[in-house]
Structure formats: C-alpha cells, structure tokens
Task: inverse folding
C-alpha cells in the first residue's frame, strides 16, 4: 500500500512539474523579449487601432482629408493611448515613429507615442499587380533596415494587408503588433503582442509603473 501511495505521489509531483514547466518557459521567453526590447535594435510593427468599419476609404481619397477615409473610433483612440502607456511603463526606448500617411495610422501613432512621421513606404504596393509575389518592396526594405541608433527601437504603424503580404500567417488584429529583428537584407518576426501581452510583460522583468 505504501509503495502504491508513493507511486501515486510521484506521478502527481511529475504532473505538477509538467504543468509548471510551460508556464516557467513562457515567463522566461517574456523576460528575454523585454530585455531585448530594452536593449534596442528592434522594429515594432503595429496595425492601427480600432476603426469604424461602417466607413470606407473612398476611391480617390485625399490623405489630408480624413472624411474620405476609415477612421479610428473612440475605443480605438483609447486603445492607442493605452498601448503607448503600457510601452512607456515597460521602459522600452522608442526612437523613430513612422506611420502610413492615412489618418487612422497617423492618429494611432500620435496618440500612442506623441509623434509620427508619415512614411509612404508603409503602404505603397509597388509596380507589380495585386497578388503578385514581390509586392510592397518598400515596406520590406523598411522593416529590414537596421535601427539607428541601435539602443532604440523603431515603431512603424501600418495596415494589415501589406504586412500580411510579406509575412503570411494571420492578419494582425487592430492594435496588435509584431516585434521584428531587422537583419539588413530581411527581418525576423520574434513575437506578436496585443495590449494584454504588453501589460503582462511588466510582470516578467523589472520596474513598471
């Protein structure tokens, strides 16, 4: 009976370790990601925050006229502010902030980070027809460019489709971001984070506010 009880106890302990191991591994990965972001040299590519899908980008829209475009909702504006607050609380150094020139991307970047420089490269498809491999070459080049200074991180705020064309997988949700490591000729996707994941990073590696 005692041997049987010991066996049951061993199996229960092993199960507990198995259940804890993934959690510990995830915590370590999160801590490593936060440390890497604090060290700089990465690009954080955001899709703009929540928009009003009853609006559409009109044919022939003017970049300076937000009335001709799909725009952020009040929820999206709050979302953008919250993203910026979460990243500042993590003490992640941010350098250049680039955005597609459309109103929803510029507004997301400005609300989150206080500034934004319009970058047509974020949305230009290039000379090839839609669906053709090699589309969005300017965006690929931008995301592959090494960050300067390397002690900071570059933020790019753009759209789902151009980025999806480059990396495949699933579309970024509104307000989600991929953390990228640029390598000169290409780039590597390290992680995908929404607001909750940004906030959760605060519990893995140091001071937060």
Result:
């Amino acid at each position: 009976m005692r041997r049987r009880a010991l066996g049951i106890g061993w199996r229960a302990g092993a199960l507990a370790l198995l259940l804890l191991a993934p959690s510990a591994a995830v915590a370590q990965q999160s801590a490593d990601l936060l440390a890497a972001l604090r060290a700089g040299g990465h690009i954080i590519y955001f899709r703009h925050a929540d928009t009003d899908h009853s609006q559409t980008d009109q044919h022939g829209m003017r970049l300076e006229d937000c009335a001709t475009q799909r725009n952020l909702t009040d929820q999206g504006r709050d979302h953008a502010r919250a993203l910026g607050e979460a990243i500042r609380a993590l003490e992640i150094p941010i350098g250049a902030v680039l955005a597609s020139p459309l109103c929803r991307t510029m507004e997301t970047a400005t609300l989150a980070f206080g500034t934004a420089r319009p970058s047509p490269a974020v949305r230009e498809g290039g000379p090839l027809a839609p669906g053709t491999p090699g589309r969005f070459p300017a965006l690929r080049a931008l995301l592959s460019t090494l960050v300067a200074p390397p002690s900071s991180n570059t933020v790019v705020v753009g759209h789902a489709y151009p980025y999806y064309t480059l990396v495949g997988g699933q579309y970024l949700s509104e307000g989600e971001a991929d953390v990228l490591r640029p390598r000169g000729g290409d780039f590597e996707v390290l992680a995908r984070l929404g607001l909750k994941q940004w906030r959760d990073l605060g519990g893995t590696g140091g001071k937060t506010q």
In short: The mean pLDDT is 88.
